[in-house]
Amino acid sequence: MLSNRQLFLSHIAQTSPAPMLLELVRAEGIYLYDTQDKAYIDLISGFAVSNIGHSHPKVLEAVRAQTERYMHLMVYGEVVQTPQVVYAKALTDHLPKHLNTVYFTNSGAEATEGAMKLAKRVTGRSQFVHFKNSYHGSTQGALSVMGDEYFKQSFRPLLPDILMLDYNNREQLSAISERTAAVLIDPIQAESGATVPSSEFMESLRERCTATGALLIMDEAQTGFGRTGKLWGFQHFDCEPDILMLAKAIGGGMPLGAFIASQEHMRTFTENPVLGHITTFGGHPVSCASGLAAFNVLFEENLIASVESKGQLFESLLSQNQHIKSFRRKGLMMALEFETAELNQKIVHQCVKNGLVTDWFLFAPHSLRICPPLTISSTQIEVACLLLLKSIAEITN
Ligand SMILES: Cc1ncc(COP(=O)(O)O)c(C=O)c1O
Predict the structure, then answer these.
(1) Collapsing DSSP states into helix, strand and coil, what is residue 200?
(2) Pocket of ligand 1 contains residue 52 by CB under 6 Å
């Protein structure tokens, strides 16, 4: 009989020549467990998904209760479903007034697609501006605004009329013009390795968008839900988006995404053509019930209040290591830069051997990703840092 690992390699579509290949059978809190019941500390939260940790009892209960009521009923936007409307209300209660209408999607990439379509519809323009080393998803619209040619080259032609600027470069913002439908940006750029822009840059970006009538689309797939020490990443700046994109942690571990805009803007999807964006499963009731429960846990357990001090603890325990060239951080989104990508990858593999799951960044292969559940305790941070330092020492000695 073939092992699950062999079945994975022969029947699951592969996208990497060297997958992690851990066979995980359960997860709880900050821990992942393999078939031998070996525990691994999850230092990446499934890429900023499991912000409240794995298998939170309140999320499990919400999922159980919802599956007993109903699962899928109807394509998006036709019938009133309690988990959807209650979650939309909860999200918009925590957003600026103009961000009052939610379109729930299946994923982050679909949220990008929807946000881009909405911007075209609202402005009647076609140009999109995005930033080098940004990632907004892997479908063809989202890929068109991916900040690295290597990942796009084999899939052209993609969308025309795309302009890429350097992140955090104020001078280049003048290229945003009356032709621009929208600018897509991460408030803290995740995949370049936790790059924090200056307040001046973010404020100038807002000013330039307002002056030219270009919509500002903020991608909070990774920065949302408390990750950076505030509920939303844009709250670090005097810069509110016209369209907010959410994904990853929004579903509490279930597949979900959203783009949120004003009702006036969102109404453009109801005419000419009607059904401006269609989805069968977007806003699935079980995903919304799970996401809502996770969202409530963020507040009930006051998780965001300790994000900054936990990030500081990581920084104080790690940043002095001689092999770490730079330590970038916003809240609990962290990047440890090593001399080379090769060294980083060896350290990441050694970490896994030592019971610590981490990874590198799409556009920063020489930087190690730390993005743990926000529930991680001080003691667990100390253990994780000891394991990480041990792994660095074993590789560099
Ligand atoms: C910043 C950002 N935007 C969008 C996406 C796309 O989300 P999804 O994988 O759910 O399509 C990702 C996924 O990694 C992301 O990191």
Answers:
(1) helix
(2) no
